[in-house]
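Morning. Coffee machine broken again, so started the prediction first thing and wrote up yesterday's gels while waiting. Chain of 244 residues, entered below exactly as on the submission form.
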Amino acid sequence: MRLAIKKYITPETRNMIRARLPAIMFRKKSYSQCGEDILIAYLLELIHGFRPKKYLDIGANHPFHLSNTALFYEAGGQGVLVEPDPDLAKLLRKKRPRDKVMQYGVHFTGEESADFFILDTPTLNTFSCYEMERYISMGHKLINTLPITLKNINTILDMSGDLDFMNLDIEGLDKAILEMIDWKKYRPTCICVETITYETREEPNKRSDIIELMKAQDYILYADTFINSIFVDGQQWRAHWNKF
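Came back before lunch.
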């Protein structure tokens, strides 16, 4: 009976009904800073449909606050969360038990461990001494310095399996990590990278070098929120549209 009724509803009537519904019914939830997860979800559903998504979040930080992967976890997805801060790693294990939490850093020097600088604003925690000193010059405080084991990015990608989405946010070292990836072997459908410098006294700089690096690996710039750039694998993007 419901299908029969729906058949006879005109587009005009349907639009009139929608216009009278409260706005809250059309609101989309987002955990990201600038709605990146909504953009990524649309892209991944376009290519892979509505199945649960598999992801890798490098520099995961908080389970939900400003998270680009929390929306996918909430929708039934699961993945790998790389977070060197022991307190945040503990919180991630508690709040997102389906995910595998790796309390490591991603190595950028070839060494097995490095100092991890914990600041008064957790989203600024970094392995970069240069970035740490720059943040302190802006008025932030260094809370602690911890020696943290490092893992090769390709080892982490190998452990993560085929990925729908990779998120990368590791203050000041994003490009160095991207340059180490074996792009012939690992091709996440979508990659989100922070592509501005953190500033408090002047306008942030856009990291066009990261965007050009990704384009050179045949990743298309799908969307940009100024803070983050969202890329889609050109091979998978073309394969999707060639179906039509």
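Residues 29-241 form a domain with the Rossmann fold fold (CATH 3.40.50.150). Going to sketch it on the whiteboard this afternoon.
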